[in-house]
């Protein structure tokens, strides 16, 4: 046993020293990379990105107060609808984490596309998933709530893990802030940073009738700076 521990220690020490000493191969990306696009060595891709996190609210209560299979149905339907909508708006799904999904948007319309994806996710919850739950389980009082957080920043994509068990880690403020926005307890379904808000086009900032602005300026929230929130939903 001692020999196995010593062998593992030697292997880990050698890998860490090599990783820290190796020169980074860093490049600007034109698309969101897949794990296969990067090596497990020091290779990184830089992107100017918008990150979206969609998070099922109160999932702990759902799991503890309902049957496991009912909770699984809620998880599956929410994540499926969110994923399909994200892809329809040009987003690339980068991770599933329990009851939430992370996506990256790039390109000239990345801010607006992410915001419209958030509207459509809320639409799917209100007009597709919740009615279907009520129809299937008429005595069930569960009401699905969710939140989407959106933030922008330069991000660096790095592949990490071991052979046959690895993924991309996204290093940058956008991923961290988007996840925290999606966890806010205020009564909005979508939150965006001021930087994202300033880059929204008219289609993303106004209702379909083109008259009323839909975003509420929430002021400074925690350490995120100025944040905007909305309960707005929009059908495709």
TrEMBL record:
Limits of the Guanylate cyclase domain: 50-182
SUPFAM superfamilies in the cross-refs: Nucleotide cyclase (SSF55073)
Leader sequence residues: none
Domain of life (superkingdom): Bacteria
Gene3D superfamilies found in the cross-reference section: Nucleotide cyclase (3.30.70.1230)
Cited InterPro entries: A/G_cyclase, Nucleotide_cyclase
Name under which the protein is recorded: Adenylate/guanylate cyclase domain-containing protein
Source organism: Gryllotalpicola kribbensis
Higher taxonomy: Bacteria, Bacillati, Actinomycetota, Actinomycetes, Micrococcales
């Amino acid at each position: 046993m001692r020999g196995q521990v010593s062998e593992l220690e030697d292997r880990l020490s050698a890998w860490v020293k090599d990783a820290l000493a190796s020169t980074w191969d860093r490049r600007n990306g034109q698309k969101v990379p897949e794990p296969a696009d990067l090596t497990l060595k020091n290779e990184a891709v830089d992107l100017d990105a918008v990150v979206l996190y969609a998070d099922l609210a109160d999932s702990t209560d759902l799991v503890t107060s309902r049957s496991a299979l009912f909770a699984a149905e809620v998880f599956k339907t929410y994540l499926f609808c969110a994923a399909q909508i994200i892809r329809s708006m040009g987003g690339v799904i980068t991770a599933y984490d329990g009851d939430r999904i992370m996506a990256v948007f790039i390109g000239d319309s990345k801010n607006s596309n992410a915001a419209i994806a958030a509207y459509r996710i809320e639409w799917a919850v209100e007009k597709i998933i919740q009615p279907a739950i009520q129809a299937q389980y008429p005595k069930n009082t569960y009401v699905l709530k969710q939140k989407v957080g959106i933030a922008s920043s330069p991000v660096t994509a790095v592949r990490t893990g071991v052979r046959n068990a690895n993924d991309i880690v996204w290093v940058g403020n956008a991923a961290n802030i988007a996840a925290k926005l999606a966890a806010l307890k205020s009564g909005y379904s979508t939150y965006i940073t001021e930087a994202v808000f300033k880059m929204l086009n008219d289609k993303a900032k106004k209702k379909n009738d083109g008259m009323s602005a839909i975003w509420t300026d929430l002021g400074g929230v925690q350490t995120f700076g100025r944040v905007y929130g909305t309960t707005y939903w929009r059908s495709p």
